[in-house]
Amino acid sequence: MMQNVHLAPETDEDDLYSGYNDYNPTYDTEELENDTAFQQAVRTSHGRRPPITAKIPSTAVTRPIATGYGSKISLTSSMGRPMTGPIQDGVTRPMTAVRAAGFTKAALRGSAFDPLGQSRGPAPPLEAKNEDSPEEKIRQLEKKVNELVEESCIANSCGDLKLALEKAKDAGRKERVLVRQREQVTTPENINLDLTYSVLFNLASQYSANEMYAEALNTYQVIVKNKMFSNAGRLKVNMGNIYLKQRNYSKAIKFYRMALDQIPSVHKEMRIKIMQNIGVTFIKTGQYSDAINSFEHIMNMAPNLKAGFNLILSYFAVGDREKMKKAFQKLIAVPLEIDEDDKYISPSDDPHTNLVIEAIKNDHLRHMEHERKAMAEKYIMTAAKLIAPVIETSFAVGYDWCVEVVKASQYVELANDLEINKAITYLRQKDFNQAVETLKMFEKKDSRVKSAAATNLSFLYYLENEFAQASSYADSAVNSDRYNPSALTNKGNTVFANGDYEKAAEFYKEALRNDSSCTEALYNIGLTYKKLNRLDEALDCFLKLHAILRNSAQVLYQIANVYELMEDPNQAIDWLMQLISVVPTDCRALSKLGELYDSEGDKSQAFQYYYESYRYFPSNIEVIEWLGAYYIDTQFCEKAIHYFERASLIQPTQVKWQLMVASCFRRSGNYQKALDTYKDIHKKFPENVECLRFLVRLCTDIGLKEVQEYATKLKRLEKMKEIREQRIKSGRDGSGGSRSKREGSAGSDASYVDPLGPQIERPKTAAKKRIDEDDFADEELGDDLLPE
Q1: For residue 180, what are the contacts with CB-CB under 8 A and spacing of at least 6?
Q2: CA atoms in the 13 A half-sphere facing the CB of 146
Q3: DSSP 728-777
Q4: DSSP string, 108-174
Q5: Do 765 and 595 form a contact (C-beta atoms < 8 A)?
Q6: Most distant CA pair in the chain: distance in Å?
Q7: How far is CA 448 from CA 436, 444, 457, 475, in A?
Q8: Contact criterion met (CB below 8 Å) for 657 and 647
Q9: SS3 for 72?
Q10: Which end of the chain has less neighbouring CB within 10 Å, N or C?
């Protein structure tokens, strides 16, 4: 078998290292002196080249170049380069067709080699632009117009609409000047249409932002009617929006439809938005069937949350129960297109991965996802609360249907919120028992829902003044979710109701630590500090709350009340003035202002605010009493009669108001009217001694015969009064003597104790005085403080 195998000879093997010593003989410069062609080229005019800077060692003999066929032909130039011309008579012709770079005729005169032209010195300065040329003026003016448009847009984004409009107008004026200059210099075809379009569009937008709708519509018309502007027809959407703001719904629909016809079908998203605007306009005009067609088309082509919600509203308006259910199911099925929360949970302990997850947890995209989810939940909850009472025979059955649909969707967590809303609906219908039963169903649910239900139950029992139950459910809510500020606030309220203000303050503080924006806890802790007479801390709390709720009437009143307790009436008056600027018809605030001015001695200001309070609420006895006393003090008894008559209507069983009316008649000199009034009072209150005294006095002064009759009645009543007082005195002495005997037997150091017990003094108004001390002894009325 080996006889057929032939080995190759060693001479045929290729040498791996052969060829490294071979080189092109053209570059052999060792024996150039013996090269005849080179020497001949040197002696010719072509060979007169400038000397090179580098010195080349000796020349080389010309070697033949190997060709592809193995032949060796001598092809060299005068400088040793391969020849480009033919060989004539055995003598090579020097190369003359190509001149080497950097060599000029000046080199023949001994100039140095300077291929970069450095010997010529620095380059001459650039020629200055001719700023007076028309083209340069047009270029600068165009740049200025672009800058004005940009400044207008920036001002609009910053909220300075007036400045944005001024910049847009200035850009429009300069752009018109630019167009005229272009027409004088160049042909009309060279006009910058894009710049004209952007200037007009920005001007129309700024007019619309400043609610100058007529000017905006005119500017849009200029753009739309110009056929040179491509795609200008879609600006009819903006014109439709302006007509919608003007409540010109028919024209709005017309322009929306014109824009829809001019937008190609490839712009699907734009067409959907226009269809949605058309549907909303139909709802505003009450054309619900046309609105339903628009929203149904959107939900079939590209469903979204707004269109689904508006479709439910339209079906609710026409009262179609089944279609409401189907629309609600379509709304539930709208994809949110957001990532799941599992994406933000690190699957491993890789520090790089954890770092990336921490970075994207709170980025702008994550916030956008939260906003989209919150908006979807808002639409679904609102739609469920809207349709639940009407889709079934009762709202409870309707809520149950909505809950089942939500449980089968991606919004499972909303089912519990719907159940809580069901309980709130029971409360609105004043069905307290059903609300409590519904909320008690959550006692076995997860901690978050259980805490929310227990918080509501605590609130309900607190309103019913069942503080024990309220405290129990508040504890349950706090135990389920210790970080629930509402639960902690309710717990603090129950403790506050029991009088433990220090402990209540601790709960309110914990609620604030969990949620610094919990205004209820901050308000309640201010009330707690007031109860503890820590007025400075209470004032700090209410001032912080005022920084959050600028126009809260309750907060303003509390600040004024604290200043009043701190005996700073000027500050109290200032804050009450802010209060009546928020609620100018609050009769309590007006009467409090009158009271403060009265305490300061400013009767005219006090009268003004008391009178304003009386105008808004003419049934406040304290205000009526003050106004009557004011007119008596100023000697206008006739005007005081009106107020005391109203007081007698409000409190018909109080004889003092009718006595004051009669007294006013007597003081004003109308004795006959006073006598008639006293007689009426005597008929209603025959045992009133004061009335009989004045009847006796008037009858005596006038000389009437009834004086003897009234005098007899007066003596009988005074005698009965003396007998009654003696009986009371003797009863007190007897009970006091027996008690002293008993206590004396117990111990000789025992002191006398009043059997009536301690007397409680009602708060007095410092600026009040008795209305008529001469007529009768009138008791002073206490302050009626505003409720906290």
Answers
A1: none
A2: 9
A3: HHHHHHHHHHHHHHHHHHH-TT-----TT-PPPPPP--TT---S-TTT--
A4: GGTPPP-TT-GGG-SPPPPPPP-TTSHHHHHHHHHHHHHHHHHHHHHHHHTT-HHHHHHHHHHHHHH
A5: yes
A6: 181
A7: 18, 11, 14, 14
A8: yes
A9: strand
A10: N
Mean per-residue pLDDT pooled into runs of 10, the chain (788 residues): 44 54 62 72 58 45 43 44 49 53 52 66 64 79 92 92 93 89 73 87 93 92 86 87 93 92 88 93 92 92 91 92 91 81 69 78 81 89 90 85 87 82 80 79 70 84 87 87 89 92 93 90 94 93 92 93 93 93 92 92 92 92 92 88 90 88 87 86 84 84 79 84 80 54 36 26 32 33 30
Tell me the C-alpha distance between 575 and 557, whole Å.
7
Among the listed residues 223, 227, 177, 228, the one whose alpha carbon sits nearest the alpha carbon of residue 201: 223
Q: Where are the alpha helices (DSSP H) in 263-320?
A: 268-285, 288-301, 305-318
Count each helix (H run) and each strand (E run) in the chain, helices first: 32, 4
Residues 6+ apart with CB under 8 A from 741: none
Closest CA to 277 of 264, 251, 300, 266: 251
* Cα–Cα distance measured from residue 211 to residue 213, given in angstroms and rounded to the nearest whole number: 5
Q: How far apart are CA 187 and CA 703, in angstroms?
A: 118
d(CA 219, CA 233): 13
**Residue 89 DSSP symbol:** T
Q: To 5 degrees, how large is the angle CA 446–CA 418–CA 313?
A: 155
